[in-house]
Amino acid sequence: MEYSLKNTNNTLLQFNQLPEGLLDISVENLHQLIPEPTLFHLSGRREKPLFISVLLHGNEPTGFLALQRLLQKYHQQTLPRSLSLFFGNTQAARLNLRRLDGQPDFNRVWPGTTADDCSERQWATEIVNVMCERGVFASVDVHNNTGLNPHYACLTKLDNDFLQLGALFGRLLVYFTHPKGTQSAAFAEFCPAVTLECGRPGQQHGTEHAFEFLDSCLHLVELPTHAIAKHDVDIYHTVAQVKVVDEISFSFSDERADLHLDNDLERMNFTEIAAGTSFGKINSPSIPVIARNNRGDDVTENFFKNDEQQLLITRATMPSMLTLDERVIRQDCLCYLMERIQL
To answer: Considering the entire predicted model, what is its pTM?
Structure first.
């Protein structure tokens, strides 16, 4: 199929070959080759494809860099397994932003979403339909964290094949059912699916880790069928997503903001914190954050209180995804709260 840069009929762009120059282009210039969400299908020795999604968030380039290295490795040889590659928000990547103003979050528009109807929901649904018909072997969506976090894999199901796929990345696994509309949750309905969180952007070991995982997946004949040993993994379940209330001002530097957040906040990621731990100073009469459980219920009072103008956690928990990036906090959330679960 001949490669074209323009979509003239508002349908999902799909090609059977990669654009020339992809193997050495920078992520900032990728939009010149792939200006909009595009799906590529490459043939390999094993027919069922490995699906790889990168750049659903434009400021998370590790997935693209790892995929680029994978494609460089097999440039002159047959792939061990067919690949289907999805490149997401290349326009936001051009500016190193999670998403552009006016865009939805590209990892909240997949089937199962509660987001408003939009063109992004249409291509996400089309990708799911196309890949379901192709009989996907496994799905991998690669992300970065903006905060200080270890590498971990996220799952939306605790079936053994999902656990085995996640454990191939590392022993730290996070089981989540919220937010809705994620790529991995949509693909989990018909194949093992995992989201990789590869630490901060720009870290070479993150790219190496993702590349090694993808290369290992390419060589798998099948996922192990034996039950995973409980001592081989640490599994946490997200029990709440915490957002700053829209009408509330917040800052890490301005002490006059409604919520003056602690500058060391991200050091609490993946750390068991005790009841009474402070997230920052409150300069407003109400609690400035809202916590919602996996059903979307407001559970703020179960986790937070205003105690002498301090935003205090009220129960032992483990936060993740805390970041000092104020734009990301506003576009996504302040953090997730997790609890350990046993197999």
So the answer is: 0.87
E strand or H helix that includes residue 120: helix 119-134
Q: Judge whether 114 and 179 are in contact, CB under 8 Å.
A: no
Residue span of the structural domain in which 274 resides: 238-338
Contact between 93 and 58 (Cβ < 8 Å): yes
Q: What does the alpha-carbon distance between residue 41 and residue 16 come to, in Å, rounded to a whole number?
A: 5
- In angstroms, the CA 243 to CA 288 distance is 9
Last residue of a domain, one of 182, 208, 232: 232
Tokens at 141, concatenated: 């969506």
Q: What is the pLDDT of residues 79-116, one digit of tens each?
A: 999 999 999 999 999 999 999 999 999 999 999 998 88
Mean pLDDT of 42-68: 98
DSSP string, 258-283: SEEE-TTGGGGTTS-B-TT-EEEEE-
pLDDT at 281 over 70: yes
In the chain, the number of structural domains is 2
- Cβ–Cβ under 8 Å, residues 314 and 275: yes
Predicted confidence at residue 8, as pLDDT, reads 45
Residue 210 has φ and ψ, to the nearest 5°, of -65, -45
Q: Are 78 and 312 in contact (CB under 8 A)?
A: no
How much is the CA Rg of the chain, to the nearest whole Å?
20
Q: Are residues 101 and 191 in the same domain?
A: yes
The token duo for 217 is 């997946």
Q: Identify the residue whose tokens are 């072997």.
A: 137
Encoding tokens for residue 203? 């870290």
- The Cα 183–Cα 128 span in angstroms is 9
- Reduce the DSSP state of residue 86 to 3 states and report it: strand
Length of the chain: 343
Q: Is 59 inside any structural domain?
A: yes
- DSSP category for residue 207: H
